[in-house]
Amino acid sequence: MERIEKEGGTSTPVARAPRKPVLTVAAGNAVLLGLGIALALAVGGYFGFQFLHAGLTTRTVPATLVGQPVDAARARVNQARLRPVVVYDAARAGQSGLVVKVKPPEGAKVRVNGDVMLVVAGRPIPAPLPAPPKDPRSGPRVIAPPAARTVPVPDVVEMSEAKARQKLTALGLEVEVRPGDPAAQAGMVQATKPKAESLVEHGAVVVLTVSTAPTPAVAPASTLVTVKDYAGTPGTDAVMDLRRAGLSAAWRYELTKIQPAGYVVRTNPPAGSQLPYGSQVTVVLAKP
Questions:
Q1: How far apart are alpha carbons 82 and 64 in whole angstroms?
Q2: CA–CA dist 103, 61 (Å, integer)
């Protein structure tokens, strides 16, 4: 309480208002700074984890592989923890023995130990044979030449998976199977990668695309489908069109000069037939 002096020596007490606590500017700035640091650490930790995780599971295809000798390109792919698959192509333009194409392309992200195909111009150079050692007792001894470093991929399209696998493994090649398009003849090889006649190294992986079983069609009541005339059209187009129309398609080959290889000669039942939904039609193709 304060007193105010008046004339005559008297004083009157006056109440003073209580002081309110004030948060200093420095304390406020410290709180904001702490929140900013915590947020920056959280964001940096999240993106750091994502970056580290991506770096542990994927690798980048090295740059400037095209134009390099095959041995140098193979070594660089191995150093990147990827698996080089060398394919020779004599029809490719470019200097023999140099890489002319890379799949996936340079700079692409690939899983660790994933395949990187190196397409090399020309044909492989056979390894030189070692000089046979001389035996003083029986004269020079002839040593059998080592196994070839490369083998051509055989044509296994339209073979069963089991038969194709047996043929490829007999040549020292590894086999990987991937599901293909649904087909009436499930379990048949539809394509290979690399393609037939490609020269690959001994032990290379050949990917087989194998047909799967078609999904059973639910036949609508009293629905008839008319078989079109597919003679002279590619067999693959005819099979796909039959399936879109609700019919099941199978195929077989026949020696003929009427149509080019792989083109439709006729169908069974013939064109114009009206069949219940889901019925099977056999497409007769010209044999390659």
A1: 16
A2: 9
* Residues 37 and 113 placed together within one structural domain of the fold: yes
Residues of the chain with pLDDT under 70: 1-32, 34, 36, 42-56, 93-94, 124-148, 184, 214-222
Residue 50: enclosing H or E segment and its boundaries?
helix 25-57
- pTM of the model as a whole: 0.36
- 235 occurs within a structural domain: yes
- Residue 38 corresponds to which tokens in the numbers above? 């915590």
Q: What is residue 31's predicted lDDT score, i.e. its pLDDT?
A: 62
Task: For residue 76, give every residue at least 6 positions away whose Cβ sits within 8 Å of its Cβ, in sequence order, or none.
Answer: 62, 65, 68
Which pair of structure tokens corresponds to residue 257?
Answer: 């000069």
Q: Which residue matches tokens 């390659």?
A: 288
As beta bridge partners, residue 212 has 182
Which of 191, 212, 233 is the C-terminal boundary of a domain? Answer: 212
Identify whether 9 is part of a domain. no
